[in-house]
Amino acid sequence: MTERAPDWERQHRAGLANMRQELLAPVAALVGYGEMLIEKARGLELEDIGPDLRRILISAKELLELVDRLLDVDGVTGRRSGANLSEIQAKVRHDLRNPLNAIKGYAELLLEEVDEIGAASTRPDLEALLSEAESLLSRIDVIIDFSSSRDAALGDRERGAVTSMIANLVRTVRPIEESSTP
Amino acid sequence: MPRLLYVEDNEMNRDMLSRRLQRRGFEVLIASDGEQGVAMAAAEKPDLILMDMSLPVLNGWQATRRLKAAPDTAGIPVVGLTAHAMATDCDKGLEVGCDDFNTKPVELGRLLEKIERLLGTGAASA
């Protein structure tokens, strides 16, 4: 007979899995936009913006690796007996902010420069990338404390993402709590 | 031209923010760890210091404490930059002598407002 994991461990793993799922999509989108912009710049021979686009892609891949490692349900974090979900949340929130700072900053810098260097055709994709970065930042903030009043400052798009995330979290955790009730 | 000292160990963030500030008319000096930041502040006497808090050798809190304890650098405004976004981290920064605090990712407009206020100028714009 298979031994059943304790309730706290199942809730912990469910929490990690939910965070991972919520963050992977926008991070993957950032990697995608980064790759697409590099290809586009190469095709249009926009060499001036190549180095900054590569920095965006490097930071997006760093984000992907961090989310994968920090929120690995079957890895060290998931199995750590003393793991405290709020500690992991705080670490995720901190560690993801440095690469996100670089992505947002370079995207904003490029948006300032594209007209001057004849690369205006990349503007829509840069704006989309920046929008994904802002959406990810909102999700990271909400993961730490979705009951705070921070969401009052969110736009419609972010609020929609947040509502969906909370609903997912409740759906994931509630059956675990119910099944553990005697 | 106002001179800023930016103390940051992350190469990409250093390159990105220094370029954005230079585009707005600031001269930007760079240090890559807290000890180098303290030494450059004493030698160069910048108008303002942007201090990342997670730094090697001497972290941002320790470096700021040293700057504020030295008569030569005590009067230079320090804006702390941190990826820690909790209110307690801001409080900790203000306790060691930061004049203001900004969380990462940096919102340039908000940072420029703080810089302008501390420099007593209205030259920079987002």
Structure description:
The complex is a heterodimer of chains A (182) and B (126). Chain A is mostly helical. Chain A is 76% helix and 0% strand. Chain A is built from six helices and no strands. Chain A has helices spanning 7-43, 50-70, 76-79, 85-113, 123-144, 156-180. Chain B has 126 residues and is an alpha/beta fold. Helices cover 44% and strands 19% of the residues of chain B. Chain B has five helices and five strands, in the order E-H-E-H-E-H-E-H-E-H. Chain B has helices at 11-23, 34-44, 60-69, 87-96, 108-119, and strands at 3-7, 27-31, 48-52, 78-82, 100-103. Chain B has a five-stranded parallel beta sheet with strand order 2-1-3-4-5, with helices on both faces. In chain B, helix 2 (34-44) packs parallel to helix 3. The model of chain B has no long low-confidence stretch (mean pLDDT 91). Chain A binds chain B through residues 55, 58-59, 90, 93-95, 97-98, 100-102, 104-106, 108-109, 112, 133, 137, 141, 144, and chain B through 10, 12-13, 15-17, 19-20, 23, 83-86, 103-106, 108.
Précis, in short:
The complex is a heterodimer of chains A (182) and B (126). By secondary structure, chain A is mainly alpha-helical.
